[in-house]
């Protein structure tokens, strides 16, 4: 699956370069690059992402310009996207332009899940929730909502082993650090950075069983806000509602 994702990324990057919009910029991060980590994450009977997704449909929450969603759709699956235009990098102009260019049938739900807007009332085989949890104020609420909609979820989020003093270690404590408004990446939409133990406790309490779990980045001295001490957790979780 990793190579297929990278092949699709090359095609999509060419399309973006040819479109060359002047009134907005593309999402600056490599969404499909996450397949490097997903390839390491998935093990055993869950090694095949295609089998995990099964017949779909698939939900992508926090899809940015939709790169991941368009890739999954290219595999022949129905995909729904949940995004908030107010916090999207370009107000969803990038995703909508690519959807038109690709002739995509992706269903886009422009909702603010942090304000309590409901997720689509469907049952999904898999939800993608990559790099979005720490942008959510109400972490418990959204994870419970996803657990009621999706059998499995592939999730990533920033975690921290130390608080900013780099002395107090929190990795084994089930806690979270609340960022100041411009403390991380000068982005006021960053909120809760969990410790590893805190993230695992949150997942368990919100209705999930953890199937696979890895951490990447600075796995020795990470903190909540420093760009050079960024650690991410990637996990495959299974809902106890199904």
Task: Write structural notes for this entry.
With 242 residues, this protein is an alpha/beta fold. The chain has one domain (2-239): Vaccinia Virus protein VP39 (Rossmann fold, 3-Layer(aba) Sandwich), CATH 3.40.50. It contains seven helices and nine strands, in the order αααβαβαββαβββαββ. It has helices at residues 2-19, 35-41, 49-53, 67-74, 93-102, 139-147, 196-205, and strands spanning 58-61, 79-83, 107-110, 124-130, 150-159, 176-178, 192-194, 208-217, 231-239. The strands form two sheets. The chain has a seven-stranded mixed beta sheet, sandwiched between helices. The protein has a two-stranded antiparallel sheet with strand order 6-7.
User: Which architecture would the CATH scheme give at its second level?
Assistant: 3-Layer(aba) Sandwich
Give the count of structural domains: 1
Q: Which CATH class?
A: Alpha Beta
Q: Which range best describes the helical content: under 10%, 10-25%, 25-40%, 40-55%, 55-70% or over 70%?
A: 25-40%
Number of helices: 7
Biggest sheet, spatial arrangement of strands: 3-2-1-4-5-9-8
Apparent shape: globular
Q: How much of the residues is beta strand, in percent?
A: 15-25%
Major sheet: 7 strands, mixed
Low-confidence stretches: none
Assembly type of the chains comes to single chain
**What is the CATH topology?**
Rossmann fold
The CATH fourth-level homologous superfamily:
Vaccinia Virus protein VP39
In short:
This protein is α/β, with parallel strands linked by helices and 242 residues long. The chain contains seven helices and nine strands; from the N terminus they run H-H-H-E-H-E-H-E-E-H-E-E-E-H-E-E.
